[in-house]
Design brief:
single chain, Growth Hormone, Chain: A, Rossmann fold, alpha/beta, 573 residues, 2 domains, 19 helices, four-stranded antiparallel β-sheet
Length: 573
């Protein structure tokens, strides 16, 4: 917003020295970038904590822009032209303190407070208000040398927008890949205070309340530095409060927060706070995800594609089939697959699956192959075995990419495809359950090939579960659905699909399973859906990229249908 004539009363005369103008230009560049990074940092943290990236980015950036507009109106009351530089230094000091501490404060609030969203959106408004005051104050400072409104606005806004571009590039390619969010905000806050200090020195002659400004800047910098030193311990304590069992391992990747908890020999993996598996009962989930599809393939499965499942547990089940020659695991986050290769409890649980899989990869646009590891075995002839001779069996490679991009760009054919994607809770995940993806997967299956899809809970997200089946059928598949009770997940469901005919469990298991024993009886029972989890009375819901029905149904969940327990309480019908 451009202040009115009264508000543009001139500051005391300033010598238009080259150094002072360069300082001001650099400050404007930095502020343009730092404001954008604050928005990204808060939005990304909110996504990690609450999920639904589209909702969080939309709300937080909209709230910050709204607050910036309010700040443009509020600066009209800052009428004393002799204190413009002083106000600007104090503003940058406050913004550095609040913005720098924001990520740590939000994480602590999420762990300790019931009304976290009030803190989240309140901080977004407060930081947005501070950012919104910067440009009007800079315009008024710059007017001392650029009295013409067109030149003044051109100088400040062009530098601000260029700074925003630089900030976005630094965020995407430097800060987010290398540093945790709490460190990013703390470092950015300290940088804000450095900008305030530089401005203070450049305009020292025009600061009236020098003791106040220096004291505020020094005290805020000391407080933020102390928080920077204390943040690791505070974050660890807050993170532990979010989990019932002790945290045994933690990794913050650019994509998600990875936590392993456990007591004794039992452990569980969480991604962004969502349970991925519990070592006590994960075999139920993974046996039903993998083996029905392997049993239903027309030919003994040799080439298997696993989409998602970076923990390696689905790969472990695939490798129990002697016919398997090639397995390709496609997972978005290298940190998860690295955990499965190196974290001893998970390596033991998977049986070293990610170092035993026989894999062939084919790179394409946007596809980045991961590390390749040779797999060997002891020689079979006694003489060779005695001298320690080994034989090379295969090479194991991991592919790190968006599985949707892989399906679009890599023309391969597979006997079985296992789609072990996260639940379709957000638009970016819902596309992995879309008609377009299933149509692409159909072209990647060999004749008689089988697709298996985890489809969330047929009880808690009943409509979404059956919408996944509707979408598979619309893509040309014939589908059989399965369900089972996984104690740590609750009631869970899967779909098994073929193109030429409905899947049949014609191939016997070549090993003794833990849950599928005997497989025929267990699968027959798993295919029976009692009324509370059977298909609801609704028209077919086909989920597409443009119309993500599965996401809307998943987010809505299932309404209560039982009688009200307490008199006068609405039962939701």
């Amino acid at each position: 917003m451009i202040p009115d004539t009264e508000d543009l009363a001139p500051m005391p005369p300033l010598a238009p020295t080259r150094s002072r103008r360069i300082v001001l230009a650099l400050v404007v560049l930095f502020l343009g970038g730092s404001g954008l990074v604050y928005e990204y940092c808060i939005s990304t943290l909110a996504t990690h904590l609450l999920g639904n990236s589209v909702e969080q980015f939309s709300l937080i950036i909209a709230l910050m822009l709204f607050a910036m507009g309010i700040a443009g109106l509020a600066q009209r009351w800052m009428r004393n032209p002799e204190r413009i530089a002083e106000w600007f230094v104090l503003l940058e000091t406050a913004l550095g303190l609040v913005g720098g501490a924001s990520a740590v404060l939000l994480y602590l609030a999420f762990a300790w407070l019931d009304h976290f969203r009030l803190v989240l959106y309140g901080l977004a408004l407060l930081i947005g208000f501070g950012i919104g005051l910067e440009i009007p104050l800079l315009l008024r400072i710059n007017r001392a040398w650029r009295a013409d409104l067109r030149d003044n606005v051109g100088d400040v806004f062009s530098l601000d927008y260029i700074g925003a571009l630089l900030g976005a590039l630094v965020w995407a390619f430097l800060l987010l890949p290398l540093f945790p969010l709490d460190r990013i905000s703390l470092f950015l806050g300290l940088a804000n205070m450095v900008a305030a200090a530089i401005t203070l020195v450049a305009f020292w002659r025009y600061i009236q309340r020098k003791v106040l400004v220096v004291g505020a800047l020094g005290g805020s910098a000391a407080a933020l530095a102390a928080l920077t030193m204390a943040a690791p311990g505070l974050v660890v304590d807050a993170r532990q409060r979010l989990y019932a069992d002790p945290i045994r391992h933690h990794v913050q990747s650019p994509y998600q927060d990875i936590v392993v908890t456990g007591t004794g020999q039992r452990f569980a993996l969480y991604l962004n706070g969502h349970l991925q598996f519990d070592s006590e009962d994960e075999f139920i989930y993974h046996e039903l995800l993998v083996h029905p599809a392997m049993m239903a393939a027309a030919d003994p499965p040799r080439r298997v594609l696993v989409l998602g499942g970076g923990d390696g547990l689905a790969v472990r089940e695939v490798l129990r089939w002697p016919s398997v020659e090639e397995v390709l695991l496609v997972d978005l986050d290298p940190a998860v697959t690295a955990l499965a290769r190196t974290y001893p409890p998970l390596v033991e649980l998977t049986g070293g699956a990610l170092t035993d899989a026989r894999v062939i990869t084919r790179a394409a646009a946007g596809v980045s192959p991961g590390p390749t590891i040779p797999v060997t075995k002891a020689a079979e002839r006694p003489r060779d075995a005695l001298i320690g001779y080994t034989e090379r069996v295969a090479e194991v490679a991991l592919l790190h990419l968006d599985a949707d991009a892989y399906i679009r760009d890599v023309p391969s054919e597979w006997d079985v495809v296992i789609a072990d994607f996260p639940d379709p809770s957000t638009p970016d995940l819902a596309k992995l359950f879309s008609l377009e993806l299933y149509q692409a997967l159909r072209t990647r299956l060999r004749p008689g090939g089988v697709l298996a899809v985890q489809a969330s809970s047929p009880y808690f997200t009943r409509s979404a579960f059956w919408a996944v089946r509707d979408t598979l059928e619309a893509a040309g598949f014939r589908v059989r659905s399965l369900h089972a009770h996984v104690p740590t997940f609750g009631e869970w469901g899967w779909h098994v699909a073929r193109v030429d005919r409905h899947p049949e469990w014609t191939r016997p298991l070549p090993f003794a399973a833990r849950y599928l024993a005997p497989p025929d009886d267990v699968l027959r029972a798993a295919g029976v859906f009692p009324p509370p989890i059977d298909r609801p009375d609704m028209p077919p819901r086909i989920s597409t990229r443009l119309d993500p029905w599965v996401m809307r149904l998943y987010q809505r969940g299932e309404p209560l249908v039982g009688p009200a327990v307490f008199p006068g309480v609405d039962d939701g019908r």
